[in-house]
Amino acid sequence: MKKRTKFYALLFAMVLSLTQMIGAAVPVKAATKECSHGYTLVNGIGIRMHECGESVCITCYHGHSKRVVIPKTFKLNGKNLPPTQIDWADCGFSENGVKEIVIPDTLDYLGYWDEDEVNTSYKDITFFVHKGSKAAKAVQAEGYKYRYLNDNSNPQPVKGTSIKRTVRIQNLTKITWKKVKCDKYEIRYSQKKNMKNAKKINCGKNKTSLVIKKLKKNRKYYVQIRTKSGKKYSAWSKVKTISKR
Ligand SMILES: [Zn+2]
To answer: How many domains does the chain have?
Structure first.
């Protein structure tokens, strides 16, 4: 009897490794993976067609990430569908060590159909949602732990500008720069190339030149410019010299 069990175990292992070998050779597109529960598996996330037929329901988790980001759409039955629901039962998330689930705005239901049922699922998991989204309301409705996603977490760098030229006339200088789209310009100038003790001047977005007065005679100056868009600044431009006079 024991021997027989061993034989089947060996046979099972062989079949498993064989399917893995074949699986590795088959293009990803051709194979629809299925999880052990019989649901479609996409990057460790189990999904099924929602009853409405126009969206996806998240059923389970088979991966090992601490933070799971639920995609905005899933390809299922040849359609790109948004997820609208996560099944109320924590199937594999906590078990596999998930601590955070980032859910898209389209996801509007995480509950159980029977409202009298005490839902203890996902109690050690924090959901990440956009403030004011349907997803935010859904996690709040279930009393799950959640935090708001910060949209500035992946900022686009602010486009800077450069100084075209500086003209020195006695104790003043005129600086001109390239116009770019921004909310305002910030100019700084100093007698030191490293901008030590620099003075700063702000200019409106429609300006492309500035006259600085009261420069010291026979002193060289250095000037730089950057732009501000919203609350963010661009990098400073290259340092330009203001010749002495
Ligand atoms: Zn599953």
So the answer is: 2
